[in-house]
Structures are given as structure tokens and as C-alpha cells.
């Protein structure tokens, strides 16, 4: 049984925002110049958005939207996604400035802030909508996602990672009240597995053949956001 009922009751207990019947925001609009997209899933999207905003707000994050991806139904609603009938994952889509933060850094961060070893589950949140996933937008992103996943699997997660790496499909913004949910509802539900783990990058990583990617991703430690445990 999923935690859908619990999350609905948490929302009504803590929020004065629009109710669960609000319509979604539709698919993504055109990107601003000199920006890229990163789309990830890691369980309840409230906490995923909150922790990415907290750590990258002054380090290349332009915007972050929670929504639905990976399903086979148009115009999914929160109720339908949580019911498991649309195939969508709760996800976060980040618009970022690649001159300030690399895609590699954003994906490394993903593996630090959730448990990627529990298939279709984060803590008490159970169902395919809570699956761990990376939805790449280019072949370069796919290559980086696969490289980061190998590193994290071998060095951080004991070769148990179940995160899916697949091409990005249609994106649907979640309903208005989900956006910046934990900013508007400080006492709202947070998955207890959404926190920054003190993992260290292994020596010699990344072993990147392409020099442009190496220069973009190999930044001094001082430029990375500081861990707040």
C-alpha cells in the first residue's frame, strides 16, 4: 500500500494553498539562453526540490520545477500519479547555468541525497511513482549519468543501485501547490531519507577522456556547495 492517503492528509493539515484538484502546469516551456535541463527522480518531489534549491540557489540553479515524467498518459494529476495508474514518476526538473555548475555535479548530488538502492521506494513512500531515475536530455548527459552511477555504485552504495537511466519523455508540471511546497509549508511532510550524505569522491575520478568535459567538471573543492548535515 502506498503512502498516498498519508500524504494527502498531511497536505490538508498543513497547507492553506490550492487543493489537490488543482490543474497541472502543462509541459516545459522554452529554455532561457545559455542554460540546460537536468531531470531526476528520487522519491517524494517536495524534499528533492527543497534540498536542490537549498544547496544550488547561489551555485548555478536558475529554476526548479516539480512534476511528472516517464508515464504513458497525458495531463497526469497528482491523484492519478499517486494511484499508480499513469506510470509517471514524481520528479524534479532543474534549469541550470552550466558555466556555474556542471551536470555531473548535479547527478553526483542526486546520489548523496536519497537511497537509490530501494526499487520503487523511498522510506515509507512505496510505488513506482517514487522510483529513482535520471532522465537525460542528450547523449552527453547519458554518458555522464552512466559514469556517475558506476562511481556511486562502486564507492557509495555497495553495488546495489537500482536507479533507471532513460531518455527524457514528456514533462508535466505538477499542480501549483506542489511548487516550493516546503518553503510555503515548513512543517510539511519530508521523506526522512532526503538528506545530504557525507560521501567523498574517489581519487582519480572522473576519468574523462574528453578534455572539455574534464575542464568543466573538475572544479576545486572550494567551488562545490558545502555540506550541511
From TrEMBL:
EC id: 1.8.4.11
Q: Which keywords describe this protein according to UniProt? A: Oxidoreductase
**Catalytic activity of the protein:** [thioredoxin]-disulfide + L-methionine + H2O = L-methionine (S)-S-oxide + [thioredoxin]-dithiol; L-methionyl-[protein] + [thioredoxin]-disulfide + H2O = L-methionyl-(S)-S-oxide-[protein] + [thioredoxin]-dithiol
Write one Pfam family the protein is assigned to.
PMSR
Q: Where is the Peptide methionine sulphoxide reductase MsrA domain?
A: 38-191
A biological process (GO) annotation for this entry?
cellular response to oxidative stress
Task: Please name the top-level EC class of this enzyme.
Answer: oxidoreductase
Disordered: region residues: 206-229
Molecular function GO terms recorded: peptide-methionine (S)-S-oxide reductase activity
Q: Does the keyword Oxidoreductase apply?
A: yes
Here the segments flagged for biased composition (Basic and acidic residues) are 213-229
Q: Which family does it belong to?
A: Belongs to the MsrA Met sulfoxide reductase family.
UniProt xrefs under PANTHER family: PEPTIDE METHIONINE SULFOXIDE REDUCTASE, PEPTIDE METHIONINE SULFOXIDE REDUCTASE MSRA 2
Protein name, please? peptide-methionine (S)-S-oxide reductase
Species of origin reads Arthrobotrys musiformis
Q: Which gene encodes it?
A: MXR1
